[in-house]
Design brief:
The complex is a heterodimer. Helices cover about 0% and strands about 50% of the residues of chain A. In chain A, strand 9 and strand 10 form a beta hairpin. By secondary structure, chain B is mainly β. Helix content of chain B is about 0%, strand content about 45%. Chain B is built from no helices and eleven strands. The chains are: A mainly beta, B mainly beta. The interface between A and B is medium-sized, with 26 and 22 residues.
């Protein structure tokens, strides 16, 4: 659905650099999520947010920072990128986790 | 620990054959389970959830609390069913969705 957009679509960076992945939704959904998708690990939750200014850690939060100053935006920052953070990152939003999650198209990040 | 297990990384079936994608969960309490699907070059999307007990694209899934399973089934596989399927469980007091490792379904002609 065009209501949730991620940028950039592709990103190549070097180890040690700071990278920010953007996520924007137009539905005013309360919940937003960041997942990473890796072969053999499936989708793993990095951080989630139940509302503006409320964020919480998921399974694999180390090395990542999030903020949610506005309901519609949920950026994910890699403070000092490492090769192990090479992955496909998906943002999602929903009115509630028990309702349907709407996923963005993903950001493919390569850390060299 | 609350987790979801999908034991098969890849499942290959012939067109017209029955399909069963396995999902087992570990959860104390009443679980809320979902199947999500990712078709090639498309976004992840909800396929079905156990609360609604509906059939989507011919797929069904029954919650078996005794076996702690939520297997996804379809009687006759179609080529367009080829995709990555993820089983997911509501965790964290209802605030987050935990996914399994996924099963790649390949339907061969």
């Amino acid at each position: 659905d065009a209501g949730i957009t991620q940028s950039p679509r592709y990103k190549i960076t070097e180890t040690g650099r700071q990278v920010t992945l953007m996520c924007h939704q137009t539905w005013s959904h309360s919940y937003m999520f960041w997942y990473r998708q890796d072969l053999g690990h499936g989708l793993r939750l990095i951080y989630y947010s139940a509302a503006a200014d409320i964020t919480d850690k998921g399974e694999v939060p180390d090395g990542y920072v999030v903020s949610r100053s506005k309901t519609e935006n949920f950026p994910l920052t890699l403070e000092s990128a490492t090769r192990s953070q090479t992955s496909v990152y998906f943002c999602a939003s929903s009115e509630s986790p028990v309702e349907k999650l709407f996923f963005g198209s993903g950001t493919q990040l390569s850390v060299l | 620990a609350q987790r979801v297990t999908q034991p098969e990384k890849l499942l290959s079936v012939f067109k017209g054959a029955p399909v069963e994608l396995k999902c087992n969960y570990s959860y104390s309490g009443s679980p809320e389970l979902f199947w999500y699907v990712q078709y090639s070059r498309q976004r992840l999307q909800l396929l079905l959830r156990h609360i609604s007990r509906e059939s989507i694209k011919g797929f069904t899934a029954d919650l078996n609390k005794g076996e702690t399973s939520f297997h996804l089934k379809k009687p006759f596989a179609q080529e367009e069913d080829s995709a990555m399927y993820y089983c997911a469980l509501i965790t964290g007091g209802g605030n987050k969705l935990t996914f399994g490792t996924g099963t790649q379904l390949k339907v061969e002609l």
